[in-house]
Amino acid sequence: MKFSYVNPTKIQFGQGQIASLSALIPADQTVLVVYGGGSIKKNGVYDQVVTALADHNWIEFSGVGANPTIEVLDKAVAVAKEQSVDFILGVGGGSVIDGVKYIAAAATYEGEGWDIPQGKHKVQTALPLGAVLTLPATGSESNAGSVVSKAATQEKLAFMAPAVQPKFAIMDPDVMKTLPQRQLVNGLVDAWVHTCEQYLTFDAGALVQDGYAEALLKALKTLGDNFANQDDAWRANLMWSANQALNGLIGAGVAQDWATHMIGHELTALYGVDHARSLAIVQPSLLRNQLDVKKAKLEKMGKNVFGLAESDDLAERTIAAIEAFYHSLDVATQLTEHDGDKAKAVDTVVAQLEAHGMKVLGENQAITLTKSREILEQAV
Ligand code: NZQ
Ligand code: ZN
């Protein structure tokens, strides 16, 4: 095992923590506050941010939608440049925080912004940024990843850069009280799949990473099973689980898959399927397709997470248990349940994967376009 690990994001967790904003951003900095479609105006989060920034010079940019597009984000980049912004604060879910990462990087780059997710521009510098999280799901609040879309071409691409890692993340579980049930389910499923992407590979005997991944999966399963009984502890546990699922720790030094995400992103870009729901469509089919190489870990997950008894078909029963978990949350595991056009979807997604250089995916680079096609044929 060999790895380098740091997570420099300061976490301010708990009720009332938005007030700590005032001390987290240097008082002499001009702040660009970025948010989405207005949920923060209805639930008091905006007011708390305004109160905390009373001694700061700040301006705002709103309207960053789900699956943020560079068409919208580039307008914020222009504001950041024109107003000589020093610090960017994202107040929202993964889409706003990912959007802020793009804005922060593009604000110090003179070329085309789309160069960034395309990898044509390697991000070395960015404006400093922080996050007030309102939807636990992506882990974006304390990682270096961002996923942005280009509406004009229906593309959705990810980029990673240490320069866009948030300086701090404020995580007050009370903000979740206004989340629609659909978004809460999405968050739970996204965090679950993030854990699986770093756990369901091959068994390298990494006791700490595997044990922590299993703890997260068990926590998420318990939260899913108790979805109807949401209280302060339920919200705090979901917020912390989703953060820990993608803050770099469980993936340090172990093989990682991410093929479900790469194929899922194409489904979102083309059909507008919510991010988490795109994963639930792809993952069971992908696990069955890759059962031989993932067998040992699927069996381990079956025993340690679902409490299943040993049997010859334990790996398959684990996949069935994952599917049953999604169904218990009313999450579809077939694209057709989203009115997707099957034949068209398979061809279009495979063509997009090819165009985006996703010709081999997965921990063994064994998911070729042929395999992706097989996976999609079962998934749509
Ligand atoms: O825009 P507003 O009005 O705020 O409404 C949002 C949005 O419509 C609403 N919402 C958020 N907090 C709320 C709330 N509504 C009521 N009360 C609150 N407290 O929820 C809707 C969805 O928000 P969004 O940010 O899109 O959801 P999520 O956090 O699931 O983010 C999904 C995005 O993150 C990317 C996905 O691809 C997708 O674009 N990902 C980012 C990752 C990363 N950076 O590490 C990893 C993930 O795998 C993922 O790919
Ligand atoms: Zn995800």
What is this structure, in a nutshell?
By secondary structure, the protein is of the alpha/beta class.
How does this structure look, described?
This protein is an alpha/beta fold. It has 15 helices and ten strands. The protein has helices spanning 21-24, 39-42, 45-52, 70-82, 94-106, 115-118, 181-199, 207-225, 232-245, 259-271, 275-289, 291-304, 314-328, 342-355, 369-379, and strands at 10-13, 30-35, 57-61, 87-92, 129-133, 145-150, 155-160, 168-171, 360-361, 367-368. The strands form three sheets. Strands 1-8-5-4-2-3 form a six-stranded parallel sheet, covered by helices on one side. The protein has a two-stranded antiparallel sheet with strand order 6-7. Strand 9 (360-361) and strand 10 form a beta hairpin. The protein binds 5,6-dihydroxy-NADP and zinc ion. The site of 5,6-dihydroxy-NADP has 34 residues, from helix 2, helix 5, strand 6 and helix 7. 5,6-dihydroxy-NADP is lined by residues 36-40, 43, 66-67, 92-96, 98, 134-135, 137-140, 143, 145-147, 175-176, 178-179, 183, 186, 190, 246, 261, 275.
Helices and strands, with pairings:
Layout: E1 10-13, H1 21-24, E2 30-35, H2 39-42, H3 45-52, E3 57-61, H4 70-82, E4 87-92, H5 94-106, H6 115-118, E5 129-133, E6 145-150, E7 155-160, E8 168-171, H7 181-199, H8 207-225, H9 232-245, H10 259-271, H11 275-289, H12 291-304, H13 314-328, H14 342-355, E9 360-361, E10 367-368, H15 369-379
Parallel strand pairs: 1-8, 2-3, 2-4, 4-5, 5-8
Antiparallel strand pairs: 6-7, 9-10
Helix pairs in contact: 4-5, 7-8, 7-9, 7-11, 8-9, 10-11, 10-14, 11-13, 11-15, 12-13, 14-15
Bound molecules: 5,6-dihydroxy-NADP (NZQ) and zinc ion (ZN).
